[in-house]
Amino acid sequence: MDNNTDFIEKLRSSGLRPTKQRIRICKLLFDRKKTFHFTINDLSKTLKKENIKQISLATIYNTVHSFKKKGYLKEISINREMSYFDTNTSDHHHFLDINTNQLIDLKKEDVEKVRIKKNLPGKKINSIEVLVKIENSN
Predict the structure, then answer these.
(1) Which of 33, 37, 57, 34 is nearest to 47 (CA)?
(2) Span between the terminal Cα atoms of the chain, in Å
(3) pTM for the complete prediction?
(4) Which residues pair with 78 in a beta bridge?
(5) What pLDDT, in 10s, does the model give residues 70-113?
(6) Domain count, the chain
(7) Are 102 and 130 part of one and the same domain?
(8) Residue of 40, 6, 48 lying closest to 23 (CA atoms)
(9) N or C: which end of the chain has fewer CB within 10 A?
(10) Pick from 84, 104, 124: which residue ends a domain?
(11) Angle (deg, nearest 10), helices 57-70 and 20-30
(12) E strands present in 19-101
């Protein structure tokens, strides 16, 4: 995305008014070549580092969750207290480095087929995404 028109359209399609703060959030998330993994707090800290006019945590939270609801972001829940968001919304797996809290993409072809033996009545498997927790080997 190379101009604000694309960001404004993404915001509007997510049900958000395109304010300067939201356009800045949108640029930070989607104006990049590589996948971006972040928590709400990570995103807030990054915006503050860039000396952006103060953006409230509520604005960041609401914007991220609107993008998620529209399908522009994927949420990866680590536990009840921590969720990461991913700009790559395709089905894929992750490493979570528990020493650095870094989420790292793991391609589907790097994981052999996962077999689930249990079925839940009235439910079908939508997708399978593996989260592999890693730590330093010392």
Answers:
(1) 57
(2) 42
(3) 0.86
(4) none
(5) 999 999 999 888 999 999 999 899 999 999 999 999 988 888 88
(6) 2
(7) yes
(8) 6
(9) C
(10) 84
(11) 60
(12) 37-38, 74-77, 83-86, 93-97
